Amino acid sequence: MKSTPVFATAVRNSANAHPEQDPEFDDRWEQYFNKEDIDEWEMRMGLNNLVRYDCVPEPRICIAALRAARRLNDFATAVRIIEIIRYKSAYKDRLYKYIIQEIKPVMEELGIPEPHELGLVGNQGKIWGPGKS
After folding, report:
1. Which of 3, 23, 84, 116 could form a disulfide with 121 if both were Cys (CB 3.0 to 4.6 A apart)?
2. Considering only CA atoms, which of 119, 133, 127 is closest in space to residue 83?
3. Residue pair 47/84 in contact by the 8 Å Cβ criterion
4. How many CB atoms lie within 10 A of CB 68?
5. Phi/psi zone of residue 76: left (φ > 0), alpha (ψ -120 to 50 degrees), beta?
6. What does pTM read for this prediction?
7. Using CB atoms within 10 A of its CB, is residue 65 exposed (0-12), middle (13-18) or buried (19+)?
8. Is there a contact between 89 and 56 (Cβ–Cβ < 8 Å)?
9. Which pLDDT value is given to residue 107?
10. Is 44 left (phi over 0), alpha (psi -120 to 50) or beta?
C-alpha cells in the first residue's frame, strides 16, 4: 500500500486579524481619532474595536483618543482610555509606565488623572470593576 503525503495549512480566521503592517495600523487609528467631526458613538465604537486587537495601542493612538474625548467633553471616556491602556498592558508595570510617561504631558494639559488618583485601583494594582468590593 502506497502512502500519500498529506499537507496541512493553518489559516487563522479572526475578526481581529489585520493584514496591514504596524505603521499603517497606527496611522489608521490615529487618523480615526483625529477626525474633527467624530461623535460619541464613533468614539465608543472605535475604542471597542481597538480593544479587540491583540496589541497595546501606541502612545500616539492613545493621545489622539484622549484629544478626541476632550473634543467631545467626555471625561469618563478619557479616564476609560487610561483604564484600557492598563488592561491591554496586561498589568505589566514597565509597559504601562512607558505609555503613561509618553502621554503624561497630554494628560496634564487636558486635566486627565490616572485611575489610581481617582481611587479606581485596588490593592493588587487592578482596576475595580462592577460587583467588586
Report:
1. 116
2. 127
3. yes
4. 24
5. alpha
6. 0.76
7. buried
8. yes
9. 95
10. alpha
| Amino acid 127: pLDDT | 58
Give pLDDT tens digits for 7-52. 433 333 445 555 667 889 999 999 999 999 999 999 999 999 999 9
Percent of the chain with pLDDT over 90: 55
The three cell numbers locating residue 42? 464613533
- Name 102's Cβ contacts closer than 8 Å, sequence gap at least 6: 59, 62
* Beta carbons of 61 and 28 less than 8 angstroms apart: no
- Name the band, by pLDDT with cuts 50, 70 and 90, for residue 126: low
Q: At a CB cut-off of 8 Å and minimum separation 6, what does 43 contact?
A: 33, 65, 68, 69, 72, 74, 77
Can you read off the three cell numbers belonging to residue 110? 487636558
Taking the mean position of all CA atoms in its chain, how far away is CA 111?
19
Please tell me whether residue 127 adopts helix, strand or coil conformation: strand
What would the grid cell of residue 34 be?
483625529
Backbone angles phi, psi at 121, to 5 degrees: -115, 135
